[in-house]
Amino acid sequence: MDIASAHVKGYLVEHTANTPQQLRRANMATILAVLRRSGAANGTDLIDATGLARATVIAVCDDLIKAGWVQELPAQKPSTGVQKGRPARVFEFDARAGFVVGLDIGMAKTTAVVADLKGAILAKNTVAFAAMGVRADSPAPRFTVIDQAICAALADAGAVPGEVLAAGVGIAAPVDRAGNIPSGQPMWKTFDTGIKDELQRRHGWPVLMGNDANLAALAEAWMGVGAGVQDLAVMLAGERIGFGLMESGRLLRGARGRAGEVGSLELLDGVGTPDGIARLARDLGAQTETAELTQFPSAEQVFDAAARGDAAAAKILTTIAVRLGRVIAVVATFTDPELVVIGGAVAASSAVLLEALEAELANFLPSPPRVAVSPLGDSIVSLGAVRLALDHVQEHVLELVPGGGGMRGRNSRQME
To answer: What is the similarity comment for this entry (predicted)?
Structure first.
């Protein structure tokens, strides 16, 4: 937060709160936001950043220390000159006042990531359902595996379930604003297993559901090559084509959570199916026998062979680029992204697609978007789920209890 905008925010807090309690809560939220972004700060730093009076700043910091959100560091002594009065008190947002969990639940595996309240990633754990003898149509055993993955990641992070303040969950299906999965495709319903209710019942956490491509867009805008880009499209390089779309820094969901699903591709000449990069590379590679390619290659093997100059593999990439170039061109016609990012587990390998893809886009658009590969790898969805959980904590921070324990009651004396 820059000083100018913070001063404006401080001014608005002082002049728009209707009651002393509202004013106090607004000032607490303002100072928490500054400390969360700036690290350690003394009273003068906070006055400069918020425009609040010194007495207000110190009183609010004391309240936040009592509430468990802020810790006081050793006081600062003047570096030069004769010390006058007491050393300046120093305050810091306690990033370990709680934790958040980010989950990526796919058909074949689940990944759990644990982060502190500043977004530092502390642990990650991935478990394949098949390795645990669990089938896709077995919701209860799948949840047992998911919970084991969460608890293992928490243990690795030095945390326990009771310290979690929120969990984000990414699934390969649309999710509306209320966290519901719409009907439309049979595959979508396979993810409608009650995971939100089950996690809330077992652990008492607020649970936020999200579409995997949408969460990939959140992650990319947070810490990927899309950071700072306001108009962004993220396409997961997986089994099916799907986009997470951001316009003016805002995630687009649609009325039923289906924005970016790009269905009905059979109507698009030269495309015909919703197959994604990984599936196309694997299926086309299986139809091509060369010295480089086995009968049933992985997508990575196809990309690696093309990078080494194999002609058959290069032809496969051209075919993929033609198909995806048309899809991206249609999406760009409606959403006009500045940047299109290819993300997911095989994104790094698919970098060999970029040149052909950009050439194909130039055939359809006079000013095509830039295309890049995400550096976040197979963590992109789980990191987006972490971002979703962090956003919830930041929005409801004064209603949550540091260290876990759920939401504060409306009449909690601690917040009066």
So the answer is: Belongs to the ROK (NagC/XylR) family.
7-35 in b/e burial notation, b at 16+ Cβ within 10 A?
Answer: eebbeebbeeeeeeeebbbbbbbbbbbbb
C-alpha distance from residue 260 to each of 96, 311, 312, 332 (Å): 35, 33, 32, 11
The answer to whether 376 and 219 have CB atoms below 8 angstroms apart is yes
Query: Residue 407's pLDDT band (boundaries 50, 70, 90)?
Result: low
Percent of the residues in the chain that have a pLDDT greater than 70, as a whole number = 86
Average pLDDT of span 397-404 = 84
Please name the helix (run of DSSP H) or strand (run of DSSP E) that holds residue 331, with its range, or none.
Answer: helix 311-335
> Cβ(390)–Cβ(117) under 8 Å?
yes
d(CA 139, CA 142): 5
Rounded-to-integer distance, Cα 215 and Cα 280, Å: 23
Alpha carbon 153 to chain centroid distance? 17
Q: Where are the alpha helices (DSSP H) in 194-276?
A: 195-203, 212-223
Q: Looking at 69-108, list the stretches that DSSP marks H as alpha helix, in order from N- to C-terminal side.
A: none
- DSSP state letter for 113: E
The H or E element containing residue 60 is helix 54-67
Chain centroid to CA 374: 13
If residue 73 lies in a helix (H) or strand (E), which one and from where to where? strand 70-76
Secondary element (H or E) of residue 339: strand 339-343
- CA angle (206 as vertex; 344, 103 as ends), nearest 5: 20
Compute the distance between CA of residue 130 and CA of residue 108 in angstroms, rounded to an integer.
7
Residue 42 Ramachandran class (φ > 0 left, ψ -120 to 50 alpha, else beta): beta
**Is it the case that residue 9 has pLDDT exceeding 60?**
no
Give the Cα separation of 287 and 297 in Å (integer): 10
What domains, with CATH codes, occur in the chain? 3-76+83-94 (1.10.10.10), 99-216+380-399 (3.30.420.40), 226-375 (3.30.420.40)
Q: Which amino acid is at 116?
A: D
DSSP state of 241: -
Other beta carbons within 10 angstroms of residue 155's beta carbon come to: 13
